[in-house]
Design goal:
The chain has 6 helices and no strands.
Length: about 110
């Protein structure tokens, strides 16, 4: 947020309100899970697809496993960084990807 506020020449608190990072993090996590599940389902063969339609808990279990994997791999550390001091360096995978994204925005094409 500090880098963003400097780029846009606004207060850190205003940048935080604009981005509402906790909501943003939740939305990105949800979309990540959705895309992951969609790609996984596309890769299933017909017999696995039949199993899903016959056993509703199977899909529910897959979804829960994806949610747990994504949370532990990316969003758990990002959430703790978000709740920590604003001056603390952010090193989570999520923070790194967002940083790369904003650096790409700054560089002329």
């Amino acid at each position: 947020m500090n880098e963003i506020s400097k780029i846009w020449d606004i207060d850190w608190s205003k940048a935080r309100r604009i981005f509402q990072l906790e909501n943003f993090l939740d939305i990105v996590q949800y979309r990540t899970e959705e895309v992951f599940l969609d790609n996984l389902l596309k890769s299933f063969n017909e017999s696995r697809t039949m199993k899903i339609s016959q056993e509703p808990d199977y899909l529910n279990n897959i979804t829960n496993e994806i949610r747990e994997f994504v949370w532990n791999k990316t969003f758990k550390k990002a959430k703790s960084e978000l709740l920590a001091s604003k001056k603390k360096m952010k090193n989570s995978l999520f923070a790194q990807i967002i940083s790369i994204y904003f650096n790409d925005l700054r560089e002329p094409v």
